[in-house]
Amino acid sequence: MPEDLTTRYQAAHTAYRTHRTTCTSCTDTSRCRTGQQLYESFAALQDAYLNRLRRKRR
Q: Chain centroid to CA 10: how far?
């Protein structure tokens, strides 16, 4: 599972970054519907990944 979460986190980041570089509607302060969905997915996976790292440190 750890590798799966890491892989999903990295893939979500890549998907968001790729969208962001090609979308003319997305800016630093606002996102189109697709950009927002990609960002939220990335943020949720990032939170899960960081929380898992924090639990390991305890």
A: 7
**CA-based Rg of the chain, rounded to a whole angstrom?**
13
DSSP code, position 28: S
Q: Model confidence over 19-53: pLDDT tens digits?
A: 999 999 998 889 999 999 999 999 999 999 999 99
Q: Coil, helix or strand for 29?
A: coil
DSSP at 5: H
Measured at the CA of 7, the angle between CA 6 and CA 12, to 5 degrees, comes to 100
Decide: 4 and 45 in contact? Cβ < 8 Å: no
In one letter, which amino acid is 4? D
